[in-house]
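Quick sanity check, FtsX-like permease family protein:
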Amino acid sequence: MLKNHLKIAIRTLLRHKNYTLINVVGLSLGLTGGLLIFVFVKFNLSVDGYHKNFDNIYRVVSDLQFSKDHLEHDNGSPYPMVKAIQNDIPEVQKASYIAKNMSYTVGIPKSTTNVDRYLEKTGIAYTDKNWFDIFDYQWIAGNPTVMNEPNTVVLTKKLAKKYFGNENPMGKTVQVNNKFILKVAGVLNDYPENTDNKMDMFISMESFKTIEPKQHIEDWGWIDSNKEVFVLLKDNVASADFDRKMIAFSKKYHGADANVFKHHLQHLSDIHFNPLYRGIIRIETIWVLVIIGVFLVITACINFVNLATAQALKRNKEVGIRKLLGSKRSHLFWLFIAEVTLIVGSSLVLALALTQQFLPVLSDWTHTNLTLIIDYQLVSFLVILFALVILLSGFYPAFVLSGFNVTKALKGNNTNQQIAGFPIRRSLVVVQFTLSQLLIIGTFVVFQQMDFFKNADLGFNKEALLIIPVFGERHNQTDVLLNKLRQDPDVKNVSFCFRPPADNSGYGGSIRYAGRDWEGFPARSKLADTNFLETFGIKLIAGRNIVTSDSIREFLINEELVARLGIKDVNEVIGKEIEVGEFGIKAPIVGVVRSFHQRSFHEKIEPLVIGMQKNSFQFAGIKLSGQVTSDKIDKIKAIWQSVYPENVFEFSFLDERIAKFYEQETMISKLLNVFALLVIFIGCLGLYGLVAFMAETKTKEIGIRKVLGASVPQILWLFGKEFAKLVIIAFLIASPVAWLSANQWLQNFAYRININLDIFVVSFFVTLLFATITVSYQATKSALMNPVKSLRTE
């Protein structure tokens, strides 16, 4: 029976090629979107889940309570905490400190005079043996104990290959910043892609003080988001028990500042998603993508139902003859299910092929390395998806088609109500249009917010500004670099600084103004030279600029800090002393600058102090004249290389660095654009099915109307008014839902657009335009049909 059903189903589908093609295309596109989202969601939900101690691994995070109204969240913790936790809290099995994202020039000696140099910006970390006891790493050579020794380094297989080729790296030496010699004491297998701990070089913690002497490693008050503490709790220990003990722990080690420093545990599963502690992607974004994936599959299924029931009229006689020859309803039902199964199966195979082709594009957009791995999760998802789509798209049409009355089927007199009643079909199309408009409105909101990011006044100039590294501890070299750059006619201005005006780092701390008590809010800090304001176009609104000095002797502050101090006249602060806890320095305020955005638009502009400290400069901002060209950059590179011949040159543009603040929003924008187009296209296929159905059922009516004098526009309106009503109903349903969703998303930004009515109007007319184009062909074809022929057919 099954074999017979499949044979008949294949013949039927081949006979109705257009119907089959439209269904396969619509379903495969919907399933492709669903599969792409599944791969992306699966990847993110599996991040760091492969560690055998996953359930018991936590990060110790710090909440800084500056006042009742000001709480800051930081994923970092002080270095002395590791030893203290292991001594004081018996529930902790292991504890480890890691200093991540160190940027170094790494030299690989090839001979006494030849050294290959590489710039490693983020993949270097300092840690100890316990890190490898907490997390799972596969050691190819060496063992974790080498991390307790000074001047040792462990490389991943990938980095060892990069540095030493096919040679055995064990025992070879690595130079750090052309000064420190480290011995390769271990090689690790490359880490899986689904991890947030993407480190390729681990330097022993014993080397930290030597290579990084400026780090406040023994200071309990020094919190840096790149310096983290991880713990492995013993089995059956609740994190809440640990957190309760941390209250007394803070009092013991932070003393009078215990009310400021509040430490607690964050589980490994939360690290990837929590925006409060620098999560990579919000969990809300994951669920939004899941909902969009469901939208795509449902839209494709609705499209199938519409087309299948529209096709039903053409199968009246086939059903009647089969029933007359003895076919039972159940036999016909399973025959139609066999057709559906073939279509869904073909669509799923095509969707898998399309997914494989589009995964590299999705990987590029999401900055991940996504692959279609055949495992039990994917197989289970495909089986469930296959069964669900057959159920959603096949059950109802099969039930309707197999239920035709024999006599009416042979006469071709089955009514609209017998063939997927028109109200049901209208409802399905309304659902499609609603989903389409939800995604269109969402796309417009994200686009406008992104446009706001690009064009809003940041309070400084970001155009034609080149950012290059410098080494502030080498005073004589930075002075030479400055003089050489000024001789280049394409260079308008140069400024040395610790960080550019806008940077995601959160350096800063408590301040005390004019002998008052410590303020109940922190101030961010920037170290820069006297050219900082002019180079970056930052406006001085009171007082004067800072003067050149080797160490901090005076401060500029921003007008936001003046306001937070409760002072209305910016001139009042000039000459007053301010103590900055981060530097442990008290110095006079000599000027006030206009407030500018120091971080992304997710956060409000914060109080700021600016001082000059030459040996802390890490970047130079170069303002170029005219259009930026590769020739201009090459000249700057040559100058830089002449000053720092032992280092690797790199550069970035300030506007590009700022754009990276919004990588997640850029990704969402691209995905919404693509998925909105997919939903619209699939929905138009469904609408085409509805129009085809109308044309079949209204053949006689159209003929009579034309005989009675109806014009072509009047016939077109007969079709137009049907879908216009559906678009309006869908718009009324989608608008409030879209407004609530978009408004909720915009709450993530301290600076955001207002959701204007024009977004909804444009969405409505875009949907209407696509619907009109879809309907026009079939409607015009029916309107131009010879009425004599249509009446004879009836």
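Posting the structure with no commentary besides this: The chain has three domains: 1-47+282-420, 54-277, 472-646.
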